[in-house]
Design goal:
six-stranded antiparallel β-sheet; 160 residues; alpha+beta; 4 helices; 35% strand; 24% helix; single chain
Length: 160
């Protein structure tokens, strides 16, 4: 867990951020918590964000995937989509996350896919479906982020 992985971004998005001196893969990494949990972003655009997370190391006392771990994966993927939708002039701040847990996962990897439900000027909402390796739905989540203008002095997130 926690190994380095570079997500895939559309070239025009990489170019937009590079012109601003921003390392896009570092900006949209899973962050310190996500890295400790083994979250890997494998595909990223405003239209679809995909990531994986191992069940091992992210379980509750009964050996099942912890619901909070599913929430971390969901919020990570939805936040990346929201940031890509907002572009380099916006910061996405999560304001609502809800998760419905459908079935247990005991081993392997889970995969989350975030798809936009609403992409506006001031908010973005993503539905995130987390599935096990047999493609069975483990969790359905919805994340809404506020998109606010970047202000002078806003610091970019530290690389993970």
């Amino acid at each position: 867990m926690g190994e380095e992985h570079t997500p895939t971004f559309p070239q025009e998005v990489i170019d937009e951020y590079a012109a601003l001196g921003v390392d896009l893969p570092a900006l949209f990494s899973a962050g310190h918590l996500g890295n400790r949990m083994g979250v890997r972003i494998v595909e990223a655009s405003a239209d679809r964000v995909v990531g994986t997370m191992p069940v091992e190391g992210n379980t509750q006392p009964y050996g099942l995937l912890h619901g909070g771990a599913s929430a971390v994966l969901a919020e990570t993927l939805g936040s990346v989509g929201s940031m890509l939708h907002g572009g380099s002039t916006k910061i996405a701040v999560g304001v609502d996350l809800n998760c419905t847990h459908h079935r247990a996962a005991r081993s392997g990897l889970v995969t989350g896919v975030a798809i936009p439900v609403h992409r506006g000027r001031s908010t973005a909402t993503y539905e995130i479906v987390i599935s096990d390796e047999a493609d069975r739905r483990v969790c359905t989540a919805r994340l809404t982020c506020l998109l606010r203008d970047v202000r002078p002095g806003d610091a970019a997130p530290a690389p993970a």
